Amino acid sequence: MGEKGVMVVGVDDSEHSFYALEWTLEHFFGGNCSSSSSSSSSSAFKLLIVHAKPTATSAIGLAGPGGADVLPYVEVDLRKISSRVAEKAKTICSAKSVNDVVVEVVEGDARNVLCDAVEKHHASLLVVGSHGYGVLKRTVLGSVSDYCAHHAHCSVMIVKRPKVKA
Question: Does 129 score more than 80 pLDDT?
Answer without folding.
Answer: yes
